[in-house]
Amino acid sequence: MGEVTARWMLATQMMITVVLMVVVPHMAIKEQILKCTGNDPLHIPHEWYQAGELLIAGIASHIHYMFPNIVFDKHPSEEAIPFPFVLTKFYQHVLALVFAINEVNENLKILSNVTLGFHIYDSYSDARMTYRTTLDLLFKSHQIVPNYKCGFHKNLIGVIGGLSADTSACMAHVFGLYKIPQFSYGSFETAASDESRFPSFYRMVPNEALQYQGIVQLLQRFGWKWVGLITTDDEAGERFFRTMEPMLSQNGICSEFTERLKANWQFFDLFEIINVTLSHLPIFMETKATVVVIYGESTTILWLASVILITTVFPVTHHEYSGTISEGKVWITTAQIDFILHVLQKPVNMQMFHGAISFTIHSQQPPGFQEFLQGINPSGAKADGFITDVWDQAFGCHIPNSDSTRDNSESCTGQETLQSLTSPFFEMSMTGHSYSIYNAVYAVAHALYRNYISPFNRKAMAGSIRLAPQHMEPWQLHSLIQRISFNNGAVEEIMFNERGELAGGFDVTNLITFPNNSYIRVKVGRLDPHASPGEVLTIAEDKIKWQRNLTQVPPLSLCNDKCHPGYSKKKEEGKKFCCYDCAQCPDRMFSNQEGRKYCINCPETHYPNKFQDECIPKIPNFLAFEETLAIISISSGLLLSLITGLVLGIFIRQQDTAIIKANNRSLTYILLISLLLCFLCSFLFIGKPKKVTCFLRQTAFGIVFSVSLSTILAKTVSVVLAFMATKPGSQMRKWVGKRLGYSIVLACSNIQAGICALWLVMSPPFPDVDMTSMTEQIVLLCNEGSILMFYCVLGYMGLLAIISFTVAFLARKLPDSFNEAKFITFSMLVFCSVWVSFVPTYLSTRGKSMVAVEIFSILASSAGLLSCIFFPKCYIIVVRPDLNNRQQLMQRKM
Question: Would the CATH topology of 209-334+339-359+504-543 be identical to that of 628-891?
Fold first, then answer.
């Protein structure tokens, strides 16, 4: 079985070699690639080696080449290696690895009997070069010879790299075959950590899904509903769009644009930069989104910087835009992105990124790291193959006696320090990616510690005998790494989850720039993976410094301006749901905040003001005694009552005169008393409704008014019968007399009393409030209980009035001495006119006006009866007493 496995491994290595020879034809290969000895080894210019009993390899990504197209018109040895472009800020990744290994070696509590060494290469952000350096780390230092170790011996125990998802995946393809633990310090690519494909892959970063939740909660926190999305046109960028778009929609957020940038763009072709810049320029010139979310690698920032640089050199004008393109933009960046520049972008003004909010890999500052960086100098780093190009491009000078990649006018003075560089080119504080590298070294060291030092873990290996360092195999560390938990040099606990990811969260930082083009990142929040889903993000808004050109902080990022209070959103057809018109709130509704989606109803006790942006308490509405209308009603009622009493007094005083005797004195007294009570009934309708007044209002008025109408009917019938009885042989004489009149009054009044009694028993009136009929007032009223019974009472009075009017109208031409039918006819005409107009007026009014209408109808109809029936008689009694005798009355004709 062992021989078969060895053959399979050898065949696999040969296949990789063949593939690399096909895909890497452009490398500066001096002679044949498959020679182990006998020729000069293939030279890779950038590496840093330090010997040790166990070796930790590193593949950084801070040098870029623009490789030429190979056309095979000359020997490969004649192909010149192009000038390297160094992202000097990423040089810290290399230094963090060196610092961590030196710190572990100096700490006798971790590995007192084992010395760690390192061998660091660069991936050049190119897949083919990544394969090349990966195989070199495994086998010969500078030559690819599968399954042979030519030259010095390397006991490789772990690998740290790479920065991007592509680099990490390329490394995993090779290192996974040998089950060498690989720690990616910047990649969030989930496919590379798939245990079924790469079981030896570990990520020194938290799960990327946490970032997605953080982005959504950040946008919600500041009410940003209209945003732009920028990412790379690769698989990772497409996954970002597929994940984010549904999450944004579910939380009421829309993307105005989704811009895809070329992945792994090297930024070295000026014409390509100009063309790409112009193609993407509309996202700056024509979009409303204030907030732009950037996902991808740090090269995205290089692209944005190139946009600034190109538009500075070639000014662009637009009819909707003036000023610099950075005005008003708030950049939100993900943890993969760092704010960097390369040597060609030194003129770029970093002020455009002021106020940016970034999700960053959590980091601490290990003691002694800044002092270590301050001591970095070419004179003390002979083995460092990176420092020459870093110093060349960072300081614009060449190091004497070094193989510089270009001729500079000046030699370095030796006084140059990394501390003098501005933040886009180097940071003295440890960045998130460097902290991941630092933790990866400690993870390997503590796994070794568990194997060599701790007596409780000696049996964790496959055999029972503890192996010597030189016999330690990388695959033996996996069982320890997967369950490891330790404190690093910054005294922070580090552990992995079951997916091989760092079990931690993200920091939220705010970028603050300075006039010298430097910046600092201030921690303003945290993404906590252990928090509930809706509370993943915590942020201190008061610590955030916003873009200086913003007119409002926090800024708005909406498709439309917010609808003012008193308005609500109205969907615009054919546009995204975040775009809307503003519509005035409907009647009786309000909105008291900007940007309300819907108007809402005021509480029943309130109503919206004129601008419909707040609710005002409703005023109670009832006919109070102190109101003008009530005072007029009371005065009118008292005056008419006084007049009625005066008339009654005159009639009692003159009861023996001919005109009073001729019109049935008893019925006249009953009518006057009932009219007096009618006027007094109007007082029940004034004041705040109470249980007693509501109980008596309609019933008392209905009964008293029915007595009045019954009396009028009795008087009319008595007149008619009296004339009929005077005819010779008439049978009507037996009906003439007071008993008939009393019977009519009693019978007709009892019917109304019965209706009212039934009303009070079944559904009596009661005090109530009407919240809806009047917008600005609460109507205090007497609920009639049963509307049917209310209209039965009115209907019965109407029936009595019609009968009285009909009988009086037919008897209107009888002689005046025995006849008051003519006056009753007029009084019934007035009565019917008042109450016929009362019904529609009553139904069309609300509140105190409705009560006033009923009071007016009561007073007007009663006054009509009083004036039409009794004023002519009072005129004869008071003004013309000479006519008040039997002889005069007998002589008068109608």
Answer: no
607/596 Cα distance (integer angstroms)? 18
Q: How many CA atoms, within 13 angstroms, populate the side-chain half-sphere of residue 520?
A: 7
Q: Which of 663, 751, 659, 752 shows the shortest CA–CA distance to 703?
A: 752
* Prior bond of 206 cis (ω within 30°): no
Distance CA 127, CA 134 (A): 10
Give the mean model confidence (pLDDT) for residues 436-458. 78
ω into 566 cis (within 30 of 0): no
Burial class (CB in 10 A: 0-12, 13-18, 19+), 387: buried
**Can you tell me which residue has the tokens 């490394």?**
171
Helix (H, G, I), strand (E, B) or coil at 70: coil
| Superfamily of structural domain 2-205+431-466 | Response regulator (3.40.50.2300)
The predicted-structure confidence for 377-397, as pLDDT tens digits, reads as follows 888 777 888 998 899 888 888
Superfamily covering domain 209-334+339-359+504-543: Response regulator (3.40.50.2300)
Inter-CA distances, 605 with 617, 687, 769, Å: 6, 21, 10
Q: Which residue has the tokens 């996954």?
A: 239
Of 853, 843, 776, give the one whose Cα is nearest residue 621. 776
Kindly list the domain boundaries of the chain, sorted by start residue: 2-205+431-466, 209-334+339-359+504-543, 567-617, 628-891
Closest CA to 557 of 790, 211, 338, 292: 292
What mean pLDDT is predicted for residues 213-231?
A: 92
837: which residues sit within 8 A by CB, 6+ positions away? none
**Superfamily classification of domain 628-891:** Rhodopsin 7-helix transmembrane proteins (1.20.1070.10)
Q: Which two tokens stand for residue 197?
A: 């494909």
Left (φ > 0), alpha (ψ -120 to 50) or beta: where does 256 sit? alpha
Predicted pLDDT at 407: 57
Q: What is the pTM of this model?
A: 0.69
- Residue 300 CB: number of other CB atoms within 10 A? 22
pLDDT tens, position by position, 458-490: 444 444 344 455 567 888 888 888 878 888 888
Structure tokens at 632: 């007029």
Phi-psi region of 633 (alpha: psi -120 to 50; beta: other; left: phi over 0): alpha
The tokens for 232 are 């790379």
Cα 576 → chain centroid: 16
User: pLDDT for 821-845, tens place per residue?
Assistant: 778 888 888 888 888 888 888 888 8
The single residue listed with the structure tokens 């008293």 is 704
Write out pLDDT tens, residues 634-653: 999 999 999 999 999 988 88
Burial class (CB in 10 A: 0-12, 13-18, 19+), 61: buried
pLDDT digits (tens, 9 = 90+) for 766-810: 999 988 888 888 999 999 899 899 889 989 988 988 888 888 888
Q: Is 696 within 8 Å of 645 (Cβ atoms)?
A: no
Q: Report CA 602 to chain centroid distance, whole Å.
A: 23
Residues 110 and 95 sit within 8 Å (Cβ to Cβ): no
Phi, psi of 55, deg, nearest 5: -115, 130
Q: Can you name the residues that pair with 183 across neighbouring β-strands?
A: 160, 202
Of 680, 674, 672, the C-alpha closest to 644 is: 672
For residue 764, the number of C-alpha atoms closer than 13 Å in the C-beta half-sphere is 15
> How far is the C-alpha of 400 from the C-alpha of 430, rounded, in Å?
30
Distance separating alpha carbons of residues 382 and 378, to the nearest angstrom? 7
